[in-house]
Amino acid sequence: MAVINNIAHTVILDDPFDDPKQLHFPSRSPSPTINLLNVSQIALDQLLNEEEGKTEEEIQKEIEAKDMAAQAQILEMVGDLHYADEKPPDNVLFVCKLNPVTTDEDLEIIFSRFGKIKCCEVIRDRKTGASLQYAFIEFEEVKYCK
Asked: What architecture (CATH level 2) is domain 92-145?
């Protein structure tokens, strides 16, 4: 018989079956354990220390994954992404840490040696027009982007 740890308490509303002769009824319900009364635990199956038994590298990867998911959700909320899990097309290259004076034409000249470019755009501030120092370059084929 398997022991189920997730059931904290039960109430029998209707029992259509006859009780066995050797069944003993307790005088009252059992008192809850201190672990059940722990209010910092949201769910019964939630671990109190989620990092227990994990290596430093595993913990760091989990933190990074949570941060990336949170950033994607923020970008979705402000309208920069349609969906938090949206991925760019494979033929689009993201370029960052650009010099503020770099133009679309400069990037097109530099990256056209790798293949035919469909579109090249330095992202700029809507109000000032100043470069935000990153760009997207869309190639005709995925192999040029690699």
From this structure: 2-Layer Sandwich (3.30)
User: How far is residue 39's CA from residue 90's CA, in Å, rounded to a whole number?
Assistant: 47
pLDDT of 1 higher than 50: no
* Alpha carbon 103 to chain centroid, angstroms: 34
The kind and range of the H/E element at 77 are: helix 56-77
Give bridge partners of residue 119 from the DSSP assignment.
138
Selection from 89, 92, 135, 144 nearest residue 115 by Cα: 144
CA-CA distance, 91 to 116, in Å (whole number)? 11
Q: Which residues pair with 139 in a beta bridge?
A: 117
Per-residue model confidence as pLDDT tens digits over 33-43: 776 676 666 66
Nearest to 109 by CA among 97, 128, 122: 122
The reported pTM is: 0.47
Tokens coding 146: 């690699």
From 2, 26, 1, select the one nearest 12 (Cα to Cα): 26
- Report how far residue 79's alpha carbon sits from residue 135's, in angstroms, rounded to the nearest whole number: 18
Work out the pLDDT band at 105, boundaries 50, 70, 90. Answer: very high
